[in-house]
Structure formats: structure tokens, C-alpha cells
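Input C-alpha cells:
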């Protein structure tokens, strides 16, 4: 996710809703998709090449070819960490039982707790229509703003694995996660953590970052990528 709107935040920074007024997940402009992937690929490739070169030289110095196995072991460890599933130990929270959608000051609609939600509680996944990159770009165009779109990468590096996009633009094809507003991490309104699962299926999961009292709004940090091109919405 990158990859994928709220009122002034008491005691911290502030962010204002982007259009449409009901909140969405953190996203980005479609024009930057390929550029960012190329940058990530180049960075990872340069890192791998540097490690391989360094270990090759070390093997020559020590006269032990087993040293060259280090990059392979490092790569397997990296992929293994990315493949760890993010568990959902309980069913997702439900509207009208645990949560409600109601107006949020300065941000259209928001998602609020109807009961106390303990820290660490699984809230829900971010659901929507699943699209590949071609369909995503065809829908929003090279300069479009996908306010409800979310990019999810896989276990493998970006040059070996195409991203998946989740579009929650249509309410009937998504869930209540689309109503969660933005709050910067570390501010009083930040109440929900995100966790990306790359395997066995790609999904963004939300968990309570602290105890949430009845009546509090559920907000998460959309990330810097969301606000590129939306700087006017921040204040």
C-alpha cells in the first residue's frame, strides 16, 4: 500500500478530508505508480548487488566460498519475514453492534466505536473490488486520484511480482473500513494500526492501537504517499 480525511486534530497536526467527503484508505495518483516501482526496484537491486559484491570479495580474502551463501540466506530471511501472515484471531467488528457510521467534524462521515474496544483487537480488513494495474490505470487515468484505492504488493520483490489494487469506491462492494478517517501516528486521534499481509492472500488489516472508548472515532495514518498532490487538504 501506498500504498492508500479528517478535521483539525486536537493536540496534534491536522488533516482535512479529500474529496469525496466520506473517508477512504490511503492512496496515490496513478501517474506515480510505475515511477515508484522503478525506484523501489532500483533500490533493492542496488542493495543486493552491493551485498553480493562485498561477500564475493570477502570470500576471496578468506578463501572460503561458503561466505557467498550469505546473500542467499539473507534473501530467504527477507522473503520469509514478508510472508508471515497477519492473523485475524476474532471476527471483524460489526456495524450497529460494535461500530457506527456518523458525521465527523470537517470530514464528512467517520467510523465510531459503540463500545470499548481493547488494544490489539482485530477491527476489520480493507475490502473492495480487486483490480490489476492495467484495470486500475484504465479506471482512473494517468493523472487520476483514486481516493478509495489501495495498492498491495506481494512477497516477491516488485520486479518479480505485480501489485494488486483494492478499490472501495463503490460502497456496496466494500465495507465500513472505507469510512475510517486519517489521523497522524502519535496524535490523540490515532486509534488504529494497519498491518499488510502479503501471503497467503494480499490484504490490509486493521487493529486497535490502544483502548478505544465508546464514542471515539477510529482513525489511522494514511501515510505520506496519500498526501502527495493533496497538500492543500492538510492544515
Amino acid at each position: 500500500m501506498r500504498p492508500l480525511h479528517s478535521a483539525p486534530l486536537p493536540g496534534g497536526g491536522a488533516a482535512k478530508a479529500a474529496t469525496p467527503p466520506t473517508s477512504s484508505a490511503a492512496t496515490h495518483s496513478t501517474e506515480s505508480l510505475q515511477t515508484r516501482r522503478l525506484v523501489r526496484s532500483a533500490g533493492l537491486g542496488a542493495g543486493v548487488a552491493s551485498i553480493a559484491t562485498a561477500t564475493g570479495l570477502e570470500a576471496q580474502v578468506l578463501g572460503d566460498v561458503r561466505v557467498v551463501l550469505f546473500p542467499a540466506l539473507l534473501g530467504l530471511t527477507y522473503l520469509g519475514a514478508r510472508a508471515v501472515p497477519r492473523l485475524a484471531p476474532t471476527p471483524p467488528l460489526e456495524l450497529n453492534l460494535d461500530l457506527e457510521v456518523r458525521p465527523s467534524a470537517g470530514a464528512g462521515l467517520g467510523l465510531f466505536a459503540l463500545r470499548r474496544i481493547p488494544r490489539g483487537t482485530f477491527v476489520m480488513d480493507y475490502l473492495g473490488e480487486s483490480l490489476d494495474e492495467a484495470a486500475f490505470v484504465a479506471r482512473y487515468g494517468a493523472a487520476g486520484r483514486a481516493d478509495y484505492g489501495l495498492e498491495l504488493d506481494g512477497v516477491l520483490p516488485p520486479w518479480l511480482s505485480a501489485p494488486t489494487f483494492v478499490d472501495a469506491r463503490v460502497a456496496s462492494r466494500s465495507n465500513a473500513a472505507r469510512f475510517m478517517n486519517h489521523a497522524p501516528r502519535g496524535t490523540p486521534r490515532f486509534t488504529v494500526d494497519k498491518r499488510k499481509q502479503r501471503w497467503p492472500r494480499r490484504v490490509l488489516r486493521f487493529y486497535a492501537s490502544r483502548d478505544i472508548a465508546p464514542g471515539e472515532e477510529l482513525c489511522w495514518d494514511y501515510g505520506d504517499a496519500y498526501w502527495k498532490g493533496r497538500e492543500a487538504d492538510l492544515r
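The first helix runs from residue 33 to 62. Confidence is low (pLDDT under 50) at residues 1-31.
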